Amino acid sequence: MSITVVGSIAYDTVKTPFGERERMLGGAAVHFALAASFFDEVHVVGPVGEDFGEPQLEVMRSRGIDVSDIERVAGGKTFFWQGEYGWDLNSRETLDTQLGVFEGFQPKLSPSSLASDVLFLANIQPDLQRDVRAQLPQARFVALDSMDLWINIARDSLVAAIEGVDCVILNDAELRQLTGKPNLVAAAREILSWGQGGSDGGGRGPSVIVAKQGEYGAALVTRDGFFALPAYPLESVIDPTGAGDTFAGGLIGYIAAHPEEELSDELLRRAMAHATVLASFNVEEFGTERVERLTGNEIVSRIKELQAMTQFSGAPLSLRG
Amino acid sequence: MSITVVGSIAYDTVKTPFGERERMLGGAAVHFALAASFFDEVHVVGPVGEDFGEPQLEVMRSRGIDVSDIERVAGGKTFFWQGEYGWDLNSRETLDTQLGVFEGFQPKLSPSSLASDVLFLANIQPDLQRDVRAQLPQARFVALDSMDLWINIARDSLVAAIEGVDCVILNDAELRQLTGKPNLVAAAREILSWGQGGSDGGGRGPSVIVAKQGEYGAALVTRDGFFALPAYPLESVIDPTGAGDTFAGGLIGYIAAHPEEELSDELLRRAMAHATVLASFNVEEFGTERVERLTGNEIVSRIKELQAMTQFSGAPLSLRG
Questions:
Q1: Which of A41, A107, B112, B142 has the lowest CB atom count within 10 Å?
Q2: What value of ipTM does the predicted structure carry?
C-alpha cells in the first residue's frame, strides 16, 4: 500500500552555531516523505512556485517518492522560511516567513493519493487537515501534526481535526497548551478521550498520542500504556530543522509497512524506535543532506544501538524497609 | 558497609499549584539519606540549629539512618529555604534563603562516618567537598552534586573536587554550563577526561557522569557507553523539591548495596532505574511525606513497571534503500 502526506514544501535558510545554508530543500512534507520512503511508497501533496527546481524534485524521486501531486503554481513563489538557532539548538528565532503559494493552498489529491491506506496531515491549517482527512474516509491509519499558532487562533477546528484522526504527534509543550493540563500524561489522557463518537472521521477518536521532546526523545501514550525513548545520543548536532517531521516519517512509515499487524503498543514501540533513529540522522547535517544519502543498513544498525542503550536488567534486591 | 552523606538539613516552605507546606523537613542530605536507607546504612553529616525538632530526627532514625553526626549548633538556626513553583513545575522561584548554621559549616566526621566505603558529597561549597573527600581516601565510590552558584563563583575548586570523585551527578544545564559545551554527550565526555592522574583523590578522575533531566528522566555517560531512562510517568506531580537528591540516594544506595560487584555499566543501569523510581515517589507528595511511608515492595513493583515501559523488540524489517 502507500502513504499520502499533505504539507509544506519549502526553501529554508538556516543558521546554526555550526554553519549556515541558503535556500535548502525543506518543508514538513519533504522531511516526512524522505524518512517514510524507507518503509513504503509516499505520495506528496503540496504546492511549489515557479522558483522550485528540478534538482529538488529529483531528490524526492530518487527515493521512490511520487511527486505528481506536487502542484506547481504559475507565477507563484515557493514557501520560504529563515531561522537561526541558539548555542544549544534548543531555541530558535524565525527571521523571515514568506508563505508564497502556501497562502490559499487548496490540496488536490489524485486518485493514487486518495487510494493510500495511511495518511499524514503535516502542520497546516486545521480546516484543510479536516478537508483532506474527509477525502480518505477508508484510510487505515491517519495522523496529524500541528503547532502553537493553530492552538492559539483555530483551536476548535484543530480539536475537530484531532477527533477525526488516529494519532496525534505534537511537541510536549503543545500538548500542554492544547489541553491546559501541565502534566504530559494527564494532557495525553485528555486527548485520548476526544472524538469518541464525534462528528469527524467515523468518530473513533485518537488512540495514539506521541509527545516529541526534542533532545530528550519522545513519549508514547495509548489507552494501554506508556512508552518513552531518549533521543539517540549524538556528540555533534548540526541542524534540528525538520527533525520532528523526519520523526513522524519514521513513525508513520513503520506503521504503514506493517498493514497485516494489529496496531498494538508493541508495534507502536518499534515504530517509535525507527522514528527516533530517522530523526537522529536528520540532525547530523543541514536540511535533508544526511537523509538523502542514508541507507537501510545504517538505520538497522542504529536501531540495535538504541535498543542496547535503553535496556536494564531487573536483578532482584532485598530492600531495607 | 555503609554510606556517608554530607550536606544540608533544612526546613522548606514550598508552594506549588497543588498546595503549600510550611517548614517541612528537607535538605539535600535528608532526601538523599531517606532514599539511600532502602539499600544500606546511612550516616548523615550536617548542621542544624536549636530549632530543629526531635520528630524530624525521628523520621530519619525510623528508617535506620545514623543521625549521630548531625551537629546541633547552640544558638543557631536551621537552614531555611522558601520557594514557589510555576504551573508546570518546571520553573521555580526562590523566595527566601536563610543559611543559618549552614554558614561557616565545617563538617566533622565521627569514626563511623569516616569508615564508610561509599560517600556522597551533596551540593555544598566545593572546598568543603574536597576537604571531606580527603578524609575518606579509601572510599570505594565517591559521588558529588553541585549547582550553578558554585560553577559561577568557585569553578576551579569545583573542577578540583570533581577530579577527586568517581561520579558526578548534575542537571544537564549545569553540565553544559560547567564545560561550556552545548551538547550533553560532548559535555560528559569532557568531564570524563578530567583528573586522570590529577592532584586530588588518587588521581583516577570521574568515570560516571549522570545528567538529571527533570521530568524527562536522566542519562548516564561512562567511557563504555550511554544509557537513558525516562522519568516514571505520573499523572499527578505535587512537589518536585528534593527529587534530585532522592534520585542520588537511589543511585548511590544501589551501588553501595552491591560491594562485591564490579562497577559495570550493567550495574549502573540498574542503579539508574532505582534512582528513577525513588525520585518518582518523592514528587508524588510534599517534601518527605511519600518516601517516609514508602516500602521496599512498592519500589520493586515500580521497577518492573519502568522496565516494561522502556522495552521494545527489534523485529527485523526490509527497508527500501
A1: B112
A2: 0.92
